[in-house]
C-alpha cells in the first residue's frame, strides 16, 4: 500500500494542496493518518478517491455533491462521464485510479475507449505516455507497487501486440528495413513495441527481436536481413559509461546500418555518441525520424 504526502497528491492529481486540505476539513473527503511527528500521510484509496473526485468536479459536479458518494458510486459515475476524448488529464486520472484499485476490467475498458475515440497512436502519445511518467514518479517515491505496475504493463503489451498484428505486412523488397531489439538483460519492452507499431503503421518493414538479445546474434541477422536501421531502447542496460562501447560493438556487427538509441541510458549527461548513432529524446522525435527517413527514401 502506498504512502503519500500531500505534496505527492498535489503532483499526481493536479489539485493544489490547500484545496485538498479544505476538502478534507469541510467534507471529510480523505482520511489521512498522522506520523509520530504529526505529518499527514495518505494511502492508495485516498489517492484513488481524489483522482475520481477530480474527474467528476472537472465535469461540472459540485464538490459538496461528489463528497457524499461512496467509492463504488463515484467509480461508476466516472465511467459514465468519460466521453471527452480531448480531456487527456481526465483520462490519465481515470486510468491511474483503476490501476490503484487493481480494476483490470475498468482499465481495459478505458484503454479501449481511448483508442476508439483518439486512434491507437494518439492515445499512446497523449494518454499512456503521461500516465507512465506519473507511474515513474510514483515508482521512484516507492508509492507504486510492483503488482500495480505489472498490471498496466501486461495489459499495454497485449494492446500493442494486438494493434500491430492487425496491420498488413509491407513488401520486403519495397519498404525500408528496421531491426528492433533490446540488449542482454534489458526487459523493458513497451517503448520498443510502440516503435514497432509506429514503423509498421507507416509502411516500413520490421524485424522485431524483442528482449534480452545477445549482441553476437546481430551478425547473422544483418547478413540475412540487410537492415538500413537498428533500433534499441536502453532503460537499464548497458551500464552507465558503456553506451559508447555498446554502440561500437553493434556497428561492428552491422557496419552499414544506422543505430537509433532511445531511453534513459542514451540521454546521459555528457554522453558522446558516434556519428552513425541517433538518440531521439522523446517518442515524438522518433516519429519525426521515421517521417524523415520515408522522405529521404522517396528522393
UniProtKB/TrEMBL annotation:
Swiss-Prot/TrEMBL keywords: DNA-binding, Repressor, Transcription, Transcription regulation
Entry keyword Protease: no
Pfam families from the UniProt entry: B12-binding_2, MerR_1
PANTHER family associated with the record: MERR-FAMILY TRANSCRIPTIONAL REGULATOR, REDOX-CYCLING DRUG-SENSING TRANSCRIPTIONAL ACTIVATOR SOXR
Organism name: Hymenobacter saemangeumensis
Identification of the protein by name: MerR family transcriptional regulator
UniProt-listed InterPro entries: Cbl-bd_cap, Cobalamin-bd_sf, DNA-bd_dom_put_sf, MerR-type_HTH_dom, MerR_fam, Meth_synthase_dom
HTH merR-type domain location: 3-72
Taxonomic classification: Bacteria, Pseudomonadati, Bacteroidota, Cytophagia, Cytophagales
Amino acid at each position: 500500500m502506498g504512502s503519500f504526502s500531500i505534496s505527492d497528491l498535489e503532483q499526481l492529481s493536479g489539485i493544489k494542496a490547500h484545496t485538498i486540505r479544505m476538502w478534507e476539513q469541510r467534507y471529510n473527503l480523505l482520511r489521512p493518518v498522522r506520523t509520530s511527528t504529526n505529518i499527514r500521510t495518505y494511502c492508495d484509496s485516498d489517492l484513488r478517491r481524489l483522482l475520481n473526485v477530480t474527474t467528476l468536479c472537472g465535469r461540472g459536479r459540485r464538490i459538496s455533491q461528489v463528497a457524499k458518494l461512496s467509492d463504488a458510486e463515484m467509480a461508476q459515475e466516472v465511467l459514465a462521464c468519460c466521453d471527452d476524448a480531448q480531456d487527456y488529464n481526465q483520462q490519465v486520472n481515470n486510468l491511474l485510479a483503476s490501476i490503484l484499485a487493481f480494476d483490470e476490467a475498468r482499465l481495459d475498458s478505458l484503454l479501449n475507449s481511448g483508442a476508439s475515440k483518439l486512434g491507437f497512436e494518439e492515445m499512446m502519445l497523449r494518454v499512456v505516455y503521461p500516465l507512465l511518467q506519473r507511474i515513474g514518479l510514483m515508482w521512484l517515491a516507492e508509492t507504486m507497487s510492483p503488482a500495480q505496475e505489472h498490471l498496466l504493463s501486461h495489459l499495454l503489451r497485449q494492446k500493442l501486440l494486438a494493434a500491430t498484428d492487425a496491420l498488413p505486412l509491407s513488401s520486403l523488397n519495397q519498404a525500408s528495413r528496421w531491426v528492433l531489439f533490446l540488449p542482454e538483460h534489458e526487459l523493458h519492452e513497451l517503448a520498443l513495441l510502440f516503435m514497432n507499431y509506429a514503423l509498421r503503421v507507416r509502411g516500413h518493414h520490421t524485424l522485431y527481436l524483442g528482449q534480452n538479445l545477445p549482441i553476437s546474434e546481430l551478425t547473422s541477422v544483418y547478413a540475412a536481413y540487410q537492415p538500413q536501421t537498428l533500433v534499441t531502447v536502453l532503460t537499464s542496460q548497458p551500464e552507465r559509461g558503456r553506451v559508447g562501447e555498446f554502440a561500437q560493438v553493434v556497428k561492428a556487427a552491422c557496419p552499414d546500418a544506422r543505430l537509433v538509441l532511445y531511453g534513459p541510458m542514451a540521454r546521459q549527461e555528457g554522453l558522446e555518441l558516434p556519428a552513425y548513432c541517433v538518440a531521439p529524446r522523446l517518442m515524438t522525435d522518433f516519429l519525426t525520424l521515421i517521417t524523415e527517413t520515408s522522405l529521404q527514401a522517396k528522393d
